[in-house]
Request: fold
Amino acid sequence: MPSDIEREAIEELFLSYIDGDLDEAARAAFEERTRTDGQFRQEFERYRRTVDLLRSVGPAPAPESLLRSVQRRLARRALRDTPLQVRFPYELLAFVFILAGILYVFFTMVPEPPSNVGPREHPVLLTVELAAPVPDSIVARFGLEAPPEAPAAQRQLYGRLSREQALALLRELTPIVRGTPPKLPAGDLFGILLDFGPLGPLVP
Reply:
């Protein structure tokens, strides 16, 4: 049985997939696991149904008249009994527990709204095949790093760049691009995946 920390990590992964925050490689790995791991797939489907339900309902505060209605019912029931009999307000207690349960589910499972109300910007993925490894100076300048899901036998680098940075990177890589240098498609944010074949020594 997973610990609380592992459960939080799994739920964070589920929410990242639902919101489209995973990169291409992580998303492919997630979908592969849902195809091959039945328990993982069932947990994800339960989580997605819960999130969809909560987001469709939204926060719904109890009306002010509800408490007054419960109090009037308690008063009428008390008048029907003998004056010496003390009745415990079970209806009020049940209402408090139900309200506490709704608040707990809402505040623990519904993610906080984003700080900016605009649509999330997702990078345009562009794969560039190279005939040689990328020089260390270019790797450092553009903050490139190996993607977490990169095949063990391949040498790959990934960078999340603005349009200006992506154009500058492609200019730097023109001498080692395999085939015709790619043209940058429309967009302001790019995920550049550089693939230069089997492992080998980096160019100094």
Q: What stands out?
A: The mean pLDDT is 77. DSSP finds seven helices and three strands in the chain. The radius of gyration is 28 Å.
